[in-house]
Design a protein that fits this description.
Elements (H helix, E strand, L loop, with lengths): L4 H19 L25 H7 L11 E2 L5 E2 L36 E8 L6 E8 L4 H15 L2 E3 L6 E8 L6 E9 L6 E8 L2 E7 L7 H18 L4
Antiparallel strand pairs: 1-3, 2-3, 3-4, 4-9, 5-6, 6-7, 7-8, 8-9
């Protein structure tokens, strides 16, 4: 039987999708979408605040007349803090007079930290220890910026009594991967302050000491040495 032309056209058009479907690859034959690479964990292998707290120096490292300041201890726990960018503004020299003075570098701190403070009864003598861990090569940048801030703050004005303050710093050899020691003095003070920054891999230890008639220098060096050894023993990542 002869099929009318208009029916032939309808059949041909209807058959076309079937033919195309037959030629198209099935979903099972198509390649699976490529997985996105996972972002690198920049905190992998770094010490947490809880671990850093264990690396702080014990009471036996401090002079016997100093005792724990109850609210002078803190740490970042088992979680890491999001890293903040560096403040590139001109350094605030008066921050060198703070018990925790790391932010003279432009960095507020590391992705993890721990700190502790000891002082005598009237807090006329005190010693502060702080450990901060940074991602990548940031710890090296921190040390460079501490040196730069010290150079820019050779003299500055104390906020309390408006006296002239002098700061002198020098590289300290044989202490971690890099170390820098500073002495802060004023003619209006009975005693000066010694500050030490020492790097071990990704960690930076900072020390403040006013304990001792030598501007706190001997006690600062002793504490910094203990912290460096403690970080090495704890496996601070380089």
């Amino acid at each position: 039987m002869r099929i009318p032309p208009r029916f032939v056209q309808v059949i041909a058009v209807a058959a076309l999708p079937l033919a195309l479907a037959a030629c198209s690859p099935s979903s099972s034959d198509s390649a699976a979408p490529a997985k996105k690479p996972q972002a690198k964990n920049l905190n992998a292998g770094l010490m947490t605040g809880s671990q850093l707290r264990k690396a702080l120096a014990p009471a036996s490292v401090f002079p016997s007349h100093l005792s724990v300041v109850p609210d002078g201890f803190s740490d970042s726990g088992d979680d890491f803090v999001s890293p903040a960018g560096r403040d590139t503004a001109k350094p605030d020299c008066t921050k060198f007079e703070n018990t925790t003075w790391l932010d003279v570098s432009g960095f507020k701190g590391g992705v993890s930290f721990a700190q502790g403070e000891y002082a005598n009864k009237d807090e006329s003598e005190e010693m502060v220890q702080e450990l901060d861990v940074f991602q990548g090569t940031t710890a090296e940048t921190v040390m460079r910026q501490i040196r730069a801030a010290a150079g820019a703050c050779a003299t500055f004005t104390d906020l309390n009594d408006h006296s002239k303050v002098k700061l002198a710093g020098s590289t300290t050899s044989g202490l971690g991967d890099d170390a820098y020691t500073m002495t802060v003095t004023s003619g209006h003070w009975e005693n000066g302050t010694t500050l030490v920054a020492a790097r071990v891999g990704n960690a930076v230890a900072t020390v403040t000491s006013t304990a001792g008639k030598d501007n706190g220098a001997a006690n600062a060096a002793k504490l910094a040495g203990h912290l460096v050894d403690s970080l090495k023993a704890a496996g601070a990542k380089g």
